[in-house]
Amino acid sequence: MYYYDNPNVIWCIGGKIDWKLARGIHIGINETDVGQYAEKMNFDYINGSAILIKRNVLEDIGLLDEKYFLYFEETDLALKASKKGYNNSYIPNAKIWHKVSKSGGGIKKEIGLYYITRNRWIFMRKWARKTDFFIFVFVQICAAFILPLSMSIYYNNKKLIEIYYKGLWDGISDNQKIENNRINNY
Prior knowledge:
The chain has 186 residues and is α+β, with helices and mostly antiparallel strands. It folds into two domains: 1-94, no CATH class; 101-179, no CATH class. It has five helices and seven strands; from the N terminus they run βββββααββααα. A hairpin with a 2-residue loop joins β1 (2-3) and β2 (6-10).
């Protein structure tokens, strides 16, 4: 995937999961494409901006989990696929140009910050090993005091503080049953 506004610069070819911070690490980000990713590769997840999945795979693993709505839904789907033995592969001949963060706006926009904050908790409860989850919780406790204030100042939007805590509360207090579906190989 390339940046729409910078068509020779890679946004993402695939991703790895940072289990302690509950974030995706995009591989290839901001690199000018000079053919360095000419081979097929497998990743923890493929960004959901453009994915191609065989029908029989979806029949086997199910569709995107609607609980997420925005952010982490493709990562959840990729882990369900991996658990069933499927690969999450980058195919070098497939190319798209992506208008990054136009739907949710990332952490600088209220909708993006809410769903990233909330879904991080849903995702980690569902997939993280216990040790990674405890580290994640510790980091989140520390960040809960500094992060929303910092973002609010940096993006000049006081509402981000409120939105962050709403996402945090909704993620922590999620009372819908989440499968105890932890992957032990990460």
